[in-house]
């Protein structure tokens, strides 16, 4: 695990060659460009083009439930035509679905009234039909003495009444307001619904036909974005008369390749070492098994260029914390099986493959801690059995579990401080973390060694640690009474973090609390299922199985959320708080986009 050393590279060439150089640099794909001029106004003035529309069209085709074999050659592919057809199809299909929904609602409203059509007013003496849906409980409130009405339909709860009157009856004429049925007959509405359903099928078929172009559309979309990135880079170079300068950060170990590239392009290359005033981006480099740790780190905070790379430690501790939180061997095996079944879904990109490897280790950790705590879908194996003998942790033994989790917390924070001390260059930066290590270890020894000689000697470690922190509270030079007083103030201010280290160590108690909660919930689900099975003979077994399936599915979902959130939180909050001092910016190489479907 390391942060890759960088150099500042300047490519200097003739202005006429700038587009060719930018395309070659993008193809090279290992330069983090440094803007030398602001191009915001120029970029705002450039039309957006069809990039957004192409992305929308591609998403519409990729999300289609039915897919055709993708065409991978450009023959017959017209970008503008495919975009237009896809977006028109999306608009028409959505409109057709809305029309179907409206017709379905209208048919449901009209169906109780039966098949009818409105007669000419002259044929019925200029009378009109007024429609009411009256709850059966309110029928007694309808006075038919002075009205011409008919109940045309009645169900269990409502009566459908038609009232004949030349004018709209007053509001108090009926116990409910009138409803609007509309002028179209039921048969007409059903005919319209059938036509709309046929049209929807045709639109869905047209969408399926268009899906054959999804690969070519994705390829062209990536090309369009690459062109946009080159255009932006072109506006951010320094152009002086007939010469341009392209400045970028690059890996120091790739300088020979960059020089060869510059030679092929016919441009000059000037490399500069990182100066104290520079703030280079951070490029993390880890071995293949630990690559996913970079994603975990950069999810919250990228360490500064002059800091250190915590990826491997975060990765390992996240796997351990996740397993402690889910802590069920049955859950771990089930999720491992699902990962195996859907393993091909993770083969599409490098990120997906990293996430798959990490997910496998998370489930292995869950299985291991489940075996250690004796939990298999909430069932504890009998004592004396093979699985029972593997149970070495008892979640309900609060004292022991508190000692274990607090020990893990202290070790984690001590490790963070040691790594920080190793990479600091000033006395304050080096010795303050050492002091906090002494405080944390002394406090842990006092807690674990109660009633022993260790407990009486451990406070000396705490005192020594606090004195170290206070003495190295800052690197302020003492050359006067005032500076001496400020140095003392700095030391006292640094000691205020004792509250932080105490609360941060206690935060690791969540590992025990969440693991106990998950195990207890699994046991409760099993108990409830068994009670239902005995309480309802016959069909009770079906109810019990349903409760088991739904209950454990919910517990797995909660465990996944808790394991990710809290397992990552202890790293990016507590660990980063003591281990990292500076936040950096990630290294973003100027490179061509991958074509993804």
What report would you give on this structure?
This protein is an alpha+beta fold. Helix content is 58%, strand content 9%. It contains 19 helices and 10 strands. A hairpin with a 3-residue loop joins β5 and β6 (158-165). α13 packs across α17 (498-507), α13 runs antiparallel to α18 and α13 runs parallel beside α19 (540-579). The longest helix has 40 residues, at 540-579. It is extended. Residues 41-49 have low confidence and may be disordered.
Write the layout of secondary structure elements.
Layout: E1 2-3, E2 6-14, H1 18-28, E3 32-33, H2 40-45, H3 51-62, H4 79-110, E4 128-135, E5 148-154, E6 158-165, H5 186-210, H6 214-235, E7 238-240, E8 243-251, H7 255-265, E9 268-272, E10 284-285, H8 291-300, H9 311-326, H10 329-341, H11 350-373, H12 386-389, H13 398-423, H14 427-448, H15 453-471, H16 481-495, H17 498-507, H18 509-535, H19 540-579
Antiparallel strand pairs: 1-10, 2-8, 2-9, 3-8, 4-6, 5-6, 7-8
Helix pairs in contact: 1-6, 3-4, 3-6, 4-5, 8-9, 9-11, 9-18, 9-19, 10-11, 13-14, 13-17, 13-18, 13-19, 14-15, 15-16, 18-19
Helix count equals 19
Shape: extended
Order of helices and strands: EEHEHHHEEEHHEEHEEHHHHHHHHHHHH
The N- to C-terminal Cα distance equals 32 Å
How many strands appear in the DSSP assignment?
10
Mean pLDDT: 87
Could you tell me the strand content as a percent range? 5-15%
Which consecutive residue ranges, at least 5 long each, have pLDDT under 50?
41-49
From the alpha carbons, calculate the radius of gyration and give it in angstroms: 36 Å
The largest β sheet comes out as: 5 strands, antiparallel
Percent of residues in helices: 55-70%
Class from helix and strand fractions: alpha+beta
């Amino acid at each position: 695990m390391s942060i890759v050393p960088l150099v500042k590279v300047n490519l200097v060439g003739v202005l006429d060659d700038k587009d060719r150089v930018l395309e070659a640099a993008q193809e090279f794909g290992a330069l983090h460009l440094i803007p030398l001029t602001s191009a915001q106004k120029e970029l705002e003035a450039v039309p957006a083009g069809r990039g957004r529309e192409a992305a929308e069209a591609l998403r519409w085709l990729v999300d289609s439930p039915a897919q055709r074999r993708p065409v991978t050659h450009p023959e017959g592919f017209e970008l503008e035509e495919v975009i237009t057809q896809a977006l028109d199809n999306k608009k028409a299909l959505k409109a057709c679905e809305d029309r179907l929904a409206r017709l379905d609602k209208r048919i449901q409203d009209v169906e109780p009234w039966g098949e009818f059509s409105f007669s000419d007013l002259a044929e019925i003496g200029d009378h009109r039909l007024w429609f009411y849906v009256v709850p059966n409980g309110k029928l007694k409130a309808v006075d038919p003495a002075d009205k011409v009405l008919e109940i045309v339909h009645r169900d269990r709860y409502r009566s459908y009444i038609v009232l004949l009157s030349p004018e709209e009856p007053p509001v108090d004429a009926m116990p409910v307001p009138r409803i609007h049925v509309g002028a179209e007959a039921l048969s007409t509405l059903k005919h319209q619904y059938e036509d709309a359903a046929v049209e929807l099928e045709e639109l869905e078929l047209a969408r399926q036909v268009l899906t054959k172009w999804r690969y070519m559309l994705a390829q062209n979309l990536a090309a369009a974005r690459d062109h946009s990135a080159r255009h932006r880079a072109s506006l951010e170079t320094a152009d002086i008369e007939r010469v341009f300068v392209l400045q970028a950060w690059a890996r120091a170990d790739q300088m020979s390749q960059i020089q060869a590239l510059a030679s092929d392009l016919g441009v000059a290359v000037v490399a500069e070492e990182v100066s104290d005033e520079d703030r280079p981006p951070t490029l993390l480099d880890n071995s293949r098994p630990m690559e996913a740790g970079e994603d975990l780190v950069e999810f919250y905070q990228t360490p500064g260029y002059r800091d250190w790379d915590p990826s491997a430690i975060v990765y390992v501790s996240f796997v351990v914390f996740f397993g402690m939180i889910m802590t069920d061997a049955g859950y771990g095996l089930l999720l491992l099986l699902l990962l195996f079944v859907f393993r091909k879904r993770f083969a599409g990109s490098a990120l997906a493959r990293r996430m798959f490897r990490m997910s496998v280790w998370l489930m292995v950790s869950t299985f291991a801690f489940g075996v250690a705590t004796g939990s298999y879908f909430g069932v504890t194996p009998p004592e004396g059995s093979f699985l029972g003998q593997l149970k070495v942790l008892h979640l309900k033994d609060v004292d022991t579990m508190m000692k274990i989790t607090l020990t893990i917390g202290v070790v984690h924070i001590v490790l963070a401080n040691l790594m920080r001390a190793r990479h600091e260059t000033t006395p304050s930066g080096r010795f303050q973390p050492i002091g906090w290590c002494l405080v944390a270890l002394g406090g842990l020894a006092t807690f674990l060694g109660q009633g022993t000689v260790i407990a009486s000697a451990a406070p000396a470690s705490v005192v020594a640690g606090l004195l170290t922190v206070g003495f190295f509270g800052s690197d302020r030079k003492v050359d006067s009474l005032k500076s001496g007083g400020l140095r003392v103030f700095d030391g006292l201010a640094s000691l205020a973090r004792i509250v932080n280290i105490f609360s941060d160590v206690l935060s690791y108690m969540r590992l025990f609390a969440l693991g106990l909660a998950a195990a207890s919930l699994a046991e409760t689900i099993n108990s409830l299922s068994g009670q239902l099975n005995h309480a309802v003979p016959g069909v009770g077994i079906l109810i019990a199985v349903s409760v088991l399936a739904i209950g454990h599915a919910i517990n797995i979902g909660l465990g996944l959320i808790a394991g990710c959130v809290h397992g990552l939180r202890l790293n990016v909050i507590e660990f980063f708080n003591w281990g990292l001092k500076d936040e950096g910016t990630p290294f973003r190489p100027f490179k061509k986009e991958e074509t993804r479907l």
